[in-house]
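TODO from last week: model Tail fiber protein.
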Amino acid sequence: MEPFIAQIVMFGGNFAPRGWAFCDGQLLPISSNSALFSILGTTYGGDGRTTFALPDLRGRVPLGPRTGAGLSTYREGQRSGEERHVLNVTEMPNHNHIASGEVKVNSADATKAVASTGSSIATPGAPAGRGISQTYGFNDATPDVALNAASNSVTIGNNGGNQAHNNMQPYLAVNYIIALQGVFPSRS
């Protein structure tokens, strides 16, 4: 069966058969490919006076250009997408996490004017040097007072280090070829 001129098919060989060409974006002269040019025009490139381009499907997945309910609009010859992508801040969703905790102290230490060493509560006083020298940690006393639990949002900083991530779907590399000769397709 003779192909339609401009028909694109997948081909498992590593060559383009006679009357076909790889869909690799090459420029062809209009003068010797007028039938093909009348179908493709400059949709895929070329100056439209002396040259026109074949579709370039190297590293690309073909996509049907038309509109439909719930579909994005694509026009013939439109190219988009990338194999690897670096996310920027505007592409990352904002998010936060709730941080909560509970502190229990011994009530015996809570009534002291000045907490003793090893107390479950902080010692009042002015800081000295680079730290708060009169603040103590928790002691071994059994806690008998629970402070009200508190929670707050914690904002998580963006991460990723400007590293690209792979954006490829699973693939198998196969040549796409386009018919340079054949039956001129009639419009319905």
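Done. The radius of gyration is 35 Å.
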